[in-house]
Design brief:
By secondary structure, this protein is of the alpha+beta class. It contains nine helices and eleven strands. Strands 1, 2, 3, 4, 5, 6, 7, 8, 9, 10 and 11 form an eleven-stranded antiparallel β-sheet that branches.
Length: 302
């Protein structure tokens, strides 16, 4: 009996003695234990969350799965609106600047174009077309004419294209309208020049100067029309003969037309203080026109 009890006691003692060692070596591994599975699942979910939010460098898959950061486009839209004028404020600013620019341009055009449009209006006073007189030249000449002919119709008394090439014909037709007349000529290189004189022209048998202090010369050889009035040095205003028609003196004729109105000369003169009026001192004439002035009437305007 005692032997059996001893054996049972020995086995129980062995059993209790072995139990700590068994507890030290758990039946489940770390990966199989409930706590380990909890920690593992938690760690996995957190790591996956952070990997989703923060892209990993060098991992294309993670970078593709990472959503793009939000970008504020209002600044870009403002820039584009400024460029294209689609924005409200920006468009308003640009429209205002465009308006100001347009006003400045209009003012500039108006300032520089007043003379031109005034010349166009004054061109209506010409009863016929001219080879040389443009709107700008017309405005310049109109401002240079004496007051007695302001507002008058310009009557073409003579033109080589219309009446033939002859100084005698020009002299004869100059008597159709007494008073101031405007001689306009030009060379074949584009220079336009002429003179204001008193008509009718009276040729003299000998060289004799005539004319008044209202006589003046003009030319476009300097780019813009330029006028030369008497300097008071002498009274060599005009010399008219059947062989030539000349203006100025004291050194050279300022302008001299030959009897066939094909050739002419020009040089400095003391009478008008001018330089050469044409492209060269000796040149061929392109055309010669003589304009008279008459008050408007129903006959002239019809």
């Amino acid at each position: 009996m005692h032997a059996l009890k001893d054996k049972v006691s020995q086995k129980l003692s062995n059993l209790f003695a072995d139990s700590p060692s068994q507890s030290a070596s758990p039946r489940y591994s770390n990966s199989d234990s409930p706590k380990a599975r909890l920690n593992s699942s938690v760690g996995k979910s957190l790591s996956s969350y952070f990997s989703f939010v923060v892209p990993q460098s060098g991992n294309d898959d993670d970078s593709e799965s990472c959503p793009p950061l939000p970008i504020r486009t209002d600044s870009y839209e403002s820039i584009e609106n400024c460029k294209s004028g689609n924005g409200h404020d920006q468009a308003g600013t640009f429209k205002e600047s465009d308006k100001d620019c347009e006003l400045r341009v209009s003012a500039k055009v108006e300032e520089s174009g007043n003379d031109y449009f005034l010349g166009v209006k004054q061109m209506r006073e010409l009863t016929e077309g001219s080879v040389f007189i443009t709107a700008n030249l017309c405005e310049f000449l109109h401002a240079s004419l004496p007051n007695i002919v302001r507002g008058c119709k310009w009557i073409l008394l003579y033109s080589t294209l219309k009446h033939g090439i002859s100084l005698r014909t020009l002299l004869r037709r100059s008597g159709e309208l007494p008073g101031p007349c405007l001689l306009v000529a030009g060379d074949k290189k584009g220079a336009v020049f002429g003179a204001l004189l008193e008509c009718p022209l009276q040729p003299t048998p000998k060289r004799k100067y005539q004319g008044t202090s209202q006589t003046f010369l003009f030319t476009t050889i300097y780019g813009e029309p330029r006028i030369f009035r008497p300097t008071g040095a002498n009274r060599y205003y005009l010399m008219c003969m059947n062989e030539f028609l000349a203006f100025g003196g004291g050194g050279n004729f300022a302008l001299c037309l030959d009897e066939d109105l094909l050739k002419a000369t020009s040089g400095p003169s003391e009478t008008f203080g001018n330089e050469c009026l044409a492209s060269s001192t000796e040149f061929e004439l392109k055309n010669v026109e003589l304009w008279g002035f008459a008050h408007a009437s129903q006959y002239l305007s019809s």
